[in-house]
């Protein structure tokens, strides 16, 4: 599956329940999805799908991380060591989902930043892609490429302004977009302006759900709203996702 001509639908951020992922992956393949990136959010879901459950013609990439929503209690014992061991054992493994969520009621910012910094350091040390959740925290991400060093990082679920998209891409971030662009309250001009602001090779698409088969509907929706042909959008998204994931 290596090579540059392999394009098409790529779900760059999803969470099918990995222990029973076969049905979700088979449905995705039937829907024309060619590749998926699955991101674990706590040590309990750092699991690999049974190789027999991966349909022919579907590339599956994974990452393991500690999500900011999982930081309310004590941190899982030995998580950093286990994550690094997983990275050493699997050269294709990514880092994440991790990130920052600065809404009220979330874990303290200092703790979130400390946990993110561990992930960031591992992604740099092992040269792996890093998947980032960011809510009300994009401003805090912006300086990190300079302060902590450049990594291949995906800001997932992005639905911010074109200006913010430009600023993040200037710093070197990839942006992964999904249903947030399709909210009924959003005018079509939002998707159009946002896609126009993101340089080619930086925009990718995601379901952020347990059903990567839904990626077709996401990309169709964004295509119809942005006026960019479906095939072009799907291929550009897949190319960006492959550059981000490094294959
Ligand atoms: Zn997610």
Overall tally of structural domains: 1
How many extended strands? Answer: 8
Give the uncertain stretches in residue-range form: 1-5
- Briefly, what CATH class? Alpha Beta
Under CATH, the topology can be stated as TIM Barrel
* Shape annotation: globular
Q: What's the CATH H-level homologous superfamily?
A: Metal-dependent hydrolases
Instruction: Write the CATH architecture name.
Output: Alpha-Beta Barrel
Helix count, DSSP H or I runs of 4 or more residues: 9
Can you tell me about this structure?
It is built from 9 helices and 8 strands. Residues 1-5 have low confidence and may be disordered. Helix content is 38%, strand content 17%. It has helices at 22-30, 79-89, 109-126, 138-141, 144-147, 162-171, 188-197, 215-226, 230-245; strands at 9-14, 33-39, 59-64, 94-101, 130-135, 153-155, 174-177, 203-205. The longest helix is centred in the middle third of the chain and has 18 residues, at 109-126. It has 247 residues and is an alpha/beta fold. An 8-stranded parallel beta sheet has the order 1-2-3-4-5-6-7-8. It has a single domain, classed as TIM Barrel. The structure holds zinc ion (ZN). Residues 13, 15, 39, 97, 156, 208 line the site of zinc ion.
